[in-house]
Amino acid sequence: MAQPGVQLDPKKLDAFIGQAVCDIGAAMSAALVVIGDKLGLYRALKEHGPLTSSELAKRTSTHERYVREWLANQAAGGYLTYDPVSHKYTLPPEQAFMLADEGSPLFVLGLFDIIQAVQADEPKMREAFRSGKGFGWHEHDERLFAGTERFFRPGYNAHLIGEWIPSLEGVEAKLKRGASVADVGCGLGASTIIMAQAYPQSRFLGFDYHDKSIALAKERARDAGVEDRVEFAVASAKDFPARDYDFVACFDCIHDMGDPVGVVRHIGKTMAADGTFMMVEPFADDTLENNFNPVGRLFFAASTMLCTPASLSQEVGLGLGAQCGEARMRQVVEEAGLGRFRRAAQTPFNLIYEIRK
């Protein structure tokens, strides 16, 4: 029943019921997407499909009855197609590009790992809402760390070497000749390793305050065969060592910092006189309501559960949020004393800023 005196618009109500049902179905299905990923169901469909439930179960060493229900859910959600004559399911090439190809620039399964992590942390975040206290990155469910790297890595693979670095004045030439590079807030080191693979004459240092991430980054550098030119160390963004870096980069992390002004100021002090600072941040419009769209919804959710609480857990606790926008980020850079700021490139998910002294 509506509140007394409140008249409901039937069309608007029906529309929102439809939206809510879609959202609830997607939320309920998120765990099934993770299961499909971890058990290799998507990969088997890509490599061997179309398949019946029995055929898929046999190829993945899983139980047919569970697989049968999973397939129906995936077809109902549009992730798979179903042929009622052959009783076979197909993973279309567009869906396979996002669900079964780790090398795809649009591979999204890392996001589903992140969803599981934030769901697990919901009780703690509920208390943070009440207390106003921060919740540090290191305090989250451990699935967050690998999931975040898995989500961002495809975009870095697709854009970092081919588009972002070439958009910066003179940086690519320096890296090809041999430059000193700092990757601040490097996490598991995906961005650092990608750069090291592309520019073997340069030397790279990755810094992150999270010791478990740094340990994994070192393992991944060894696996990638770049440990001869990459070094990872535990350090905060305000106290990593200054070495007159030719190039400093921060990927999707400045807005997470408690004191982003202090961080940018310190970065400026660590750079060579002609050095460049590249800041990669989530795509956001300066006007709040212009971010009320599917991408903005995703980023505001991440900002509420991850970015803002991380900032509030640190000194200053500015709490920029993931959707602070270019104008606010320019203000941070100017307050830090660095005067040359421009948007160098962009994607549907990121803004890339070039900053110089």
Return the average pLDDT rounded to an integer. 96
Helix content: 40-55%
Number of domain modules: 2
Q: Give the C-alpha Rg.
A: 23 Å
The CATH superfamily of the largest domain is Vaccinia Virus protein VP39
Q: SSE order, as H and E?
A: HHHHEEHHHHHEHEHEEHEHHEE
How is the CATH topology of the largest domain named? Rossmann fold
CATH architecture classification of the largest domain: 3-Layer(aba) Sandwich
Describe the structure.
With 357 residues, the protein is of the alpha/beta class. The protein folds into two domains: 23-99, Arc Repressor Mutant, subunit A (Orthogonal Bundle); 152-356, Rossmann fold. It has 14 helices and nine strands. The chain has a seven-stranded mixed sheet, sandwiched between helices. A two-stranded antiparallel ribbon has the order 1-2. It is globular and about 70 Å long. The model has no long low-confidence stretch (mean pLDDT 96).
Task: Give a nutshell description of this structure.
This protein has 357 residues and is α/β, with parallel strands linked by helices.
List the helices and strands and how they pair.
Layout: H1 10-38, H2 41-48, H3 53-60, H4 64-76, E1 81-83, E2 88-90, H5 93-99, H6 109-120, H7 122-131, H8 143-164, H9 171-177, E3 180-184, H10 190-198, E4 203-208, H11 211-224, E5 230-234, E6 245-251, H12 260-270, E7 271-282, H13 294-312, H14 326-335, E8 340-346, E9 350-356
Parallel strand pairs: 3-4, 3-6, 4-5, 6-7
Antiparallel strand pairs: 1-2, 7-9, 8-9
